[in-house]
Amino acid sequence: MADRFGVDVQVAGEMGRHLAEIRNSFNDLGGSFEAAGEVTGSARVQKALGEFVKHSSDVRKKLDQELERAAGLLNGLASGARQLDAGLAEAVTVDASGQPAAPGTATPAAPPGAAPAPSPTSAPSPASAPSPAPAPEGAPA
Fold it and tell me: Which one of 29, 72, 103, 140 has the lowest number of neighbouring Cβ atoms within 10 Å?
């Protein structure tokens, strides 16, 4: 299934934020139209803008709901993908012996055929440290 699903978490989050910004700007537009009618000094323009706002309110309300829904879905996708990735990373970890590691102490699993990465929380003990190679004959010690 992993080969069929992928998400760019950063892009999904950015799109969610952009849609929320568009929604906020769009909601502010209705108030701007109402205020613009009063500023023109023309009763006719004021009436026309008032009619526009009145007749477009159902459409604006529906668009507002759809923008809110889309932003929420994208933000939820980004959040869920981050949580899933973190959960999978924790579940697919091994210790130095190749056994499943205790939560919070693991290092990422090594690719097949590769040696596991050393744990960042443990240093090699002096007994397990490799001894230096012997100097070649005739070389100064």
Answer: 140
C-alpha Rg value of the chain to the nearest Å:
31
Hey, what amino acid is at 8?
A: D
**Phi, psi of 105, deg, nearest 5:** -120, 5
Contact, 79 vs 9, CB < 8 A? no
CA distance 94 to 101: 5
Phi, psi of 118 (to 5 degrees): -65, 150
Name the DSSP class of 37.
H
- Find, among 58, 6, 66, 71, the residue nearest to 30 by Cα: 58
Q: Which residues, 6 or more positions from 27, have their beta carbon under 8 angstroms from its beta carbon?
A: 60, 64
Tell me the two tokens of residue 126. 């002096």
DSSP 68-133: HHHHHHHHHHHHHHHHHHHHHHHHTEE-TTSSBPPTTS-EEPPPTTSPPPPPTT-PPPTTTSPPPP
Helix (H), strand (E) at residue 43: helix 43-91
Across the chain, which has 141 residues, the per-10-residue mean pLDDT values are 77 93 82 68 82 80 92 93 87 72 58 49 45 54 52
